[in-house]
Design brief:
The structure is a single chain. By secondary structure, the protein is an alpha/beta fold. The protein has two domains: 2-64, 2-Layer Sandwich (Alpha-Beta Plaits); 81-360, TIM Barrel, CATH 3.20.20. Helix content is 33%, strand content 18%. The protein has helices spanning 11-25, 50-54, 108-121, 145-159, 173-178, 194-200, 217-229, 267-274, 283-287, 290-303, 330-345; strands spanning 2-5, 29-33, 37-41, 59-63, 83-85, 89-91, 97-101, 125-127, 163-166, 183-186, 207-210, 245-249, 279-281, 307-311, 350-352, 355-357. An eight-stranded parallel β-barrel has the order 7-8-9-10-11-12-13-14, surrounded by five helices. α6 (194-200) crosses α7. The protein is elongated. Bound molecules: phosphoenolpyruvate (PEP) and manganese (II) ion. Residues 103, 133, 166, 187-188, 210, 250, 282, 285 line the site of phosphoenolpyruvate.
Length: 361
């Protein structure tokens, strides 16, 4: 629910509205002051009686947010969200950010060689995955957790880059945080698993949320709202929520079997119009083939993605996981050309719901 105060509404009138929301309904508010004051009601705002708010002095109008993904919705928060990974690398807004590295950590040599290759190519945030969700239990699923995290930390120390890793098991969260994992990734296979999402709402470490390969856009953004809202199963707002969610599009299942998944490029501008969150895309897990990764990257960037996450491996022929889709030295050209495309198109407006925003350079 959004409450627009009338022009010239006094501070006392604004406070009266906020007090009524908190005393009568136990909900919190966020206030944005520009030429007029706008009050956003957090949590389960469906319990608020609209009429009782509209009649208060100084209130101009009350708008209900109908989307099931309120915290992630652009109608609730119009400005693009920019997240600073590791306190320094920006994702979102006018930035183009590259996440890259090996699909999984296999051994120290492979991990460090691949990390150096990714850094030399211009990657901003390094993939350092101790855990791997795989479709088949017979496939490579990562090293023992302690060893995997030790190597992830070594990749970070060697390159000086922030790292991202996939969390599969809730019991591993504290170890990930203690090891200095800068971004926690939730994979496509866990993308709607609410206990995992709720736990991430209690921390403030950035989260990359993959698009579940059987989900539509509303389900994906609702999963993001699980992390952002801080609402528990009793529909109480128990924490502030974690607003640092980065969406990652990676294609869905379709009848096409020649590509690994089917990525619909129109999802990029669509999701950007519906949500203020940073949106990156994964050309490796969508196409499944390194011969396709370069052009698919350019397509995602031209469509308006805020970044790319892709697999880079120092020796794909020997990789234990997803070698077929990993690039090597081409990564440098891909990043350089994608940045040119991004710069060239940065003056073109992006439909963002109520307004047309031109990405800031
Ligand atoms: C990955 O990024 O390593 C991965 C497994 O991707 P997804 O969860 O999208 O399948
Ligand atoms: Mn992979």
């Amino acid at each position: 629910m959004i409450i627009h105060m009338a022009e010239g509404a006094t501070i006392d009138q604004v406070e009266r509205v906020i007090n009524r929301i908190s005393q009568d309904y136990g909900l919190r508010c966020e206030t944005i002051v520009s030429s007029t004051t706008v009050i956003g009601v957090k949590g389960v705002a469906s319990i608020v009686d609209e009429g009782r708010i509209t009649e208060l002095p100084g209130v101009d109008r009350v708008i209900r947010i109908t989307e099931k993904y309120k915290d992630a919705a652009r109608s609730f928060h119009n400005e693009d969200t920019i997240i600073h990974v590791g306190g320094r690398v920006p994702v979102g807004g006018g930035n183009l950010t590259f996440f890259g590295g090996p699909c999984a950590i296999e051994n120290e040599q492979q991990a460090i060689d691949s990390a150096r290759l990714a850094k030399a190519a211009g990657v901003d945030i390094l993939r350092a995955f101790p855990d791997k969700s795989r479709t088949s239990p017979y496939d490579y699923r990562g090293l023992d957790l302690t060893r995997g995290l030790e190597i992830a930390t070594a990749m970070k120390a060697d390159t000086g880059l922030p790292i991202v890793g996939e969390l599969i098991d809730l019991r591993h969260l504290d170890a990930f945080l203690d090891a200095g994992m800068d971004v926690i990734q939730i994979g496509a296979r866990s993308a709607q698993y609410s206990p995992l999402l709720e736990e991430l709402s209690k921390i403030d470490r950035p989260v990359v949320l993959k698009h579940g390969f059987g989900n539509d856009m509303n389900e994906w953004l609702a999963a993001a709202a699980y992390v952002m809202s801080g609402i528990d199963r009793e529909r109480r707002t128990v924490s502030e929520g974690n607003k640092n969610v980065i969406l990652c599009y990676r294609g869905i299942k379709s009848f096409e079997s020649e590509t690994r998944f089917s990525a619909d490029i129109s999802m990029i501008p669509l999701v950007r119009s519906k949500s203020h969150l940073p949106l990156i895309a994964d050309p490796s897990h969508s196409s499944g083939d390194k011969k396709l990764v370069e052009r698919v990257t350019y397509g995602f960037v031209a469509a308006g993605a805020h970044g790319i996450e892709f697999d880079i491996h120092s020796n794909p022929a020997e990789a234990l996981c997803d070698g077929k889709q990993a690039v090597t030295h081409e990564a440098e050209r891909i990043i350089r050309s994608a940045r040119q495309i991004h710069a060239m198109l940065s003056g073109i407006g992006m439909e963002t719901g109520s307004s047309v925003a031109v990405a800031a350079k």
